[in-house]
C-alpha cells in the first residue's frame, strides 16, 4: 500500500475519543492512499464556537442548529477551535439531534464524491456504517490527557495536568452517554490502542490493519 497506488472511491472511517491520535493517523492514511481527508470534529467545533461567539449556550438547540446551518469554509480555519472551551462546546452541540442532522448530509456528500478518510466519533456507526474499513483508535485516559497537555503547552497555553485529565474524562462521559450517535466502536471496527505507541508506530499499525482489510 503506497501513495503511488491510490484508492479511488474508498471510504475509511476512523473513530475514537479525544487525543487518542486518530486525527494525525487519519491524515497520514489519507495521504498514503491518495484520498481526501476530513476531520469531522471541526464541523462541531466550528458550530460550538459560533454559538459561544453569539453569546448563547452550546446546549441551546435553536442557537446550535442555526450555527450549524450557517457554517462556511472560513469557520474551519479559525485559530480558536482547540482547547478546553472549544472541546466542551463541540461535545455539547454534537449531542443535539438537529445539529447532527444538519451536518450529516455534508459529511456523506464529502465521502461519496471521491472516497475519503474521515475521522470523528460516529463515522463507522452513523455516517458511513457501510465503510469497508473502520478503525476505532483509543488510549488510556491518562495518556490522552498527557498528550493534550503537551499539545496545549506547545501552543503556549498554560494548563494544569489534573484539570486537563478531568476535562477529558468529562468530555468522554458526555460523548459516550449522549442519546444520539454516542461514541462507541462499530461492531465490525478494528480497535487500535495507541497508549504505548508514538505517532509513527500508530501509523504503521493502522497502515497494516487497513492493508490487510483491503487485501493490499
TrEMBL record:
Main subcellular location of this protein, as a coarse class: cytoplasm
Keywords: ATP-binding, Cytoplasm, Kinase, Nucleotide-binding, Transferase
Enzyme class: transferase
SUPFAM superfamilies the UniProt entry points to: P-loop containing nucleoside triphosphate hydrolases
Domain (Cytidylate kinase): residue spans on this chain: 12-200
EC number of this enzyme: 2.7.4.25
Keyword Nucleotide-binding part of the UniProt annotation: yes
Subcellular location: Cytoplasm
GO MF term list: kinase activity
Record field: catalytic activity: dCMP + ATP = dCDP + ADP; CMP + ATP = CDP + ADP
Annotated binding of ATP, by residue: 16-24
NCBIfam families (alphabetical): cmk
Family label: Belongs to the cytidylate kinase family. Type 1 subfamily.
Protein name listed in UniProt: Cytidylate kinase
